[in-house]
Write a structure and sequence with these properties.
Elements (H helix, E strand, L loop, with lengths): L2 H23 L6 E3 L5 E4 L9 E3 L8 H14 L4 E5 L7 H7 L3 E11 L11 E2 L3 H15 L5 H13 L3 E7 L2 E10 L4 E8 L8 H15 L4 E5 L1 H8 L4 E10 L11
Parallel strand pairs: 3-4, 9-10
Antiparallel strand pairs: 1-2, 2-3, 4-11, 5-10, 5-11, 6-7, 7-8, 8-9
Length: about 260
């Protein structure tokens, strides 16, 4: 990926991450999305990170103190309120300003992007559109990623995934998937989220093949693929032609739970 494209990828990842969460919260009854003081604010009834958060900061120097004061108020009111600091935010040291006011980073992910040309890859994946099948795949994803959560919480995540505008691909039977992935499609980029393979099908290259299928589909429309992942997976994605372009951190004011904050 050329330097110019790499620089642009920072903003593509940032925009896509925000679109991911706003798309999920749109399916939560009672959630409200607003834009105070140069950022996006979401407040809702759920306890998930995509129900109560602030992200997408684009603050002028004179707005920073007021914005942080506002966020302190939100975090004091809501124990599980998250502030997502993403590479490309303004000011660039906004995470430091948060820490000065008592916020702590509870989880950090690596942002990556790939625009490498990829040969056509067919793994038998198809788009899931039928509501019941989307819910079943959403449940499969929730069980893979949020297994430490209670059943009710996982059901809430599955329902939000199913009702979101995001594209869902499945390999195998939609009601008993072999593998699945959620794609957040924008005109400029395709976000890859919640890639998961059933336990009994792991270790056979299916996950890599599914990523390659997403890359080849995106390349046909001239779009890069972007994602966020834990540090432990960054090397695996590097082998699939992804490059690091930044990071995303989840900050809380209180000692909020640390498990499964970010999708």
């Amino acid at each position: 990926m050329e330097h110019r494209a790499l620089s642009n990828a920072v903003q593509l990842v940032r925009s896509n991450a925000l679109a991911t969460y706003v798309g999920l919260v749109g399916a939560v009854e009672g959630a409200v999305v607003s834009k105070p003081i140069g950022f996006t604010l979401v407040r809702g009834p759920g306890v998930f990170s995509f129900c109560n958060f602030a992200a997408g900061f684009d603050l002028a120097p004179g707005e920073v103190d007021a914005a942080v004061d506002f966020l302190v108020g939100q975090a004091t009111e809501c124990f599980e309120f998250y502030v997502f600091s993403i590479s490309g935010d303004e000011p660039a040291d906004f995470d430091k300003r948060l820490e000065e006011r008592g916020f702590q980073c509870r989880q950090s992910l690596v942002s990556m992007a790939s625009s490498a040309p990829v040969e056509e890859k067919d793994v038998g994946a198809r788009v899931v559109t039928e509501p019941d099948e989307r819910l079943a795949v959403g449940d499969f994803m929730a069980r893979q990623f949020f297994w430490r959560m209670g059943r009710e919480a996982r059901q809430g995540i599955a329902a939000a995934t199913a009702a979101s505008p995001h594209t869902i691909w499945v390999v195998g039977d939609g009601r008993d998937p072999t593998a699945a992935v959620m794609l957040v499609e924008q005109p400029e980029a395709v976000g890859l989220f919640n890639l998961c393979v059933a336990t009994e099908s792991r270790g056979k290259g299916l996950g890599s093949d599914l990523v390659r299928a997403v890359q080849s589909a995106a390349s046909r429309t001239g779009r890069p693929v972007v994602l966020q992942c834990g540090e432990e997976l960054a090397g695996w994605y590097s082998n699939l032609d992804f490059e690091r372009v930044g990071s995303i951190g989840a900050f809380t004011l209180a000692q909020a739970p640390t498990d499964d904050i970010l999708v």
